[in-house]
Amino acid sequence: MKDWCSPRMAWIGAGVSFIALCSVTFAVAIPALRSSASDARTHRIEVSFEQPPRWMGPEDLAPLQDAVAREVGTDPYDRAGLERARVMLEASGWFESVQQVRRTGHGGISVTGEFAQPTAIVADRDGDHLIDSEGRLMPRSYGHGTAPAITRITGVTLPRPSRAGEVWQGADLVAGLEMAKLVALQRWRAQIASVDVSQYRDHQTLALTTVGGCRLNWGRAPGAEAAAEVPASQKLRYISMLQTQYGRIDAAGPASIDLSVDYVGSH
């Protein structure tokens, strides 16, 4: 009996020891796992944008990074969160399009997309508001006189969109935006204070105002000239001649210049 019981008792003792060891292991491991899970929940997700434009600083990118982190969440297998983030970015007003939002190998998020290009500032009673090349409102506004050196459009008829990413409506704004794009290509662009579209609704005409207070009556929008009106190329040549001759486009003296006729008139 003694010889039979000894091996049996040895196995029972080993089993008890194994159970005790497992209990200790789980007692130590479970809090560690809980702590790790807690750390994962509180760990900041690093979000990077591929080739962000130079004009966007950290103060512009940080809110976008936080918004992406909220949408994607902490579950590494959640693909729905990536799609939510992509849709959110496309509706933000900062992008022309977003091709991909993906997780990186180090737990971060990488965004590939084409950023919108700020093209003009549109003024209304509440301030100056940035729009892109398609007339979409961007999520950036300024107090009057505090905007960067981007061509300003004044005198628009319709109110600005209710949210970023929407197109600012109005034929006058469309014409002013085309004028702003043309001005941006000229070497004298820094001398233009604004594109005035206040006469567009009644007369379909535009004007440029210089930083010196001179008004250049441009006429109709580029490419939409009336039959008796000189083309945009001729108007640009005359302005360039003023720049070459006087060093400034408004240095000839007159308070206003009519560029729309073949014989340039001033008064």
Please describe what this structure looks like.
- The chain has two domains: 47-115, Ubiquitin-like (UB roll) (Roll); 118-266, 3-Layer(aba) Sandwich (Rossmann fold).
- It is 38% helix and 23% strand.
- The protein has helices at residues 2-42, 58-72, 79-90, 171-184, 200-203, 232-246, and strands at 47-49, 95-103, 109-115, 118-124, 127-132, 137-142, 152-154, 192-196, 206-210, 215-219, 256-258, 265-266.
- Helix 2 runs antiparallel to helix 3.
- The longest helix has 41 residues, at 2-42.
- The chain starts with a helix and ends with a strand.
- Mean pLDDT is 84; it is low at 1-5 and 7-42.
Summarize the structure.
With 267 residues, the protein is of the alpha/beta class. The chain has six helices and twelve strands. The chain folds into two domains: 69 residues, Ubiquitin-like (UB roll) (Roll); 149 residues, Rossmann fold, CATH 3.40.50.
